[in-house]
Design a protein that fits this description.
- The chain is an alpha/beta fold.
- It contains eleven helices and five strands.
- Strands 2-1-3-4-5 form a five-stranded parallel β-sheet, sandwiched between helices.
- Helix 3 links the parallel strand 3 and strand 4.
- The longest helix has 15 residues.
- It starts with a strand and ends in an 8-residue tail after the last helix.
Length: 220
């Protein structure tokens, strides 16, 4: 039997938590293991609930979403975090992604997209909704600046950039290995090296780096 995806929901509105739980309970691959009304309550319960994915609101009492995200990244680096909020400000979206969010959804998102996003962050470690893609294109993309200061300082090799391009195309480790004739273990080593060189917190951060430097669109 396939393991269920364990999900925690943090939102200060009880009705929203109940609605999301009801939507997710219709999917037999999901198990809601925790509901929290603020970030502190979420963090206090995560050791016991052991979620794979957290759906995180931003505006909450006691401890807000931004501060909660930072703490999750420190204590639970492998947990996927999907921001679920009403905020659509481009700079704010990019900031949350750079702090380590794996995806960003607006609260009027179709329920089917929430389900898709959960599956995507488990499989690919990131999910870029239309609102995130638009924020990247309007706010940080520099397609004509192939050798920006940031890229030059990172010192990425051509092989590393090849791997980064395939990550942007949502290739799995095995698929990247097959495309470049390298073992999955070697690809995993490159992924860790890429994160070190770019100071990315996760795969979403790597993709942001690639978009910012025009790497994602090269070689297409």
């Amino acid at each position: 039997m396939k393991e269920l995806i364990r999900i925690a929901i943090a939102d200060d509105h009880k009705l929203i938590r109940a609605g999301i739980t009801m939507i997710l309970s219709e999917n037999d691959q999901f198990l809601v293991v925790q509901q929290a009304s603020n970030g502190r309550e979420l963090l206090d319960g995560m050791a016991n609930s052991k979620p794979d994915v957290v759906l995180l609101d931003l505006e909450m009492p006691v401890l807000g979403g931004k501060e909660t995200l930072i703490e999750i990244r420190k204590s639970y680096p492998d947990v996927r975090v999907l921001i679920l909020t009403m905020h659509k400000n481009e700079a704010f979206i990019i900031q949350m992604m750079e702090l380590g969010a794996n995806g960003y959804l607006i609260k009027n998102t179709d329920p089917d997209e929430v389900v898709q996003a959960i599956h995507k962050v488990i499989q690919s470690e990131f999910y870029f909704s239309d609102v995130v893609s638009m924020a990247m294109l309007q706010g940080i993309s520099q397609p004509d600046l192939k050798l920006s200061d940031e890229l030059s300082k990172s010192g990425l090799t051509e092989r590393e950039m090849d791997i980064l391009r395939l990550i942007c195309k949502e290739y799995t480790t095995i698929e990247i290995g097959e495309a470049l004739f390298l073992s999955p273990k070697t690809i995993e080593g490159y992924r860790k090296l890429l994160m070190d060189k770019t100071d990315a917190r996760n795969m979403a951060g790597l993709v942001l780096f690639a978009v910012r430097n025009g790497i994602h669109s090269e070689g297409n």
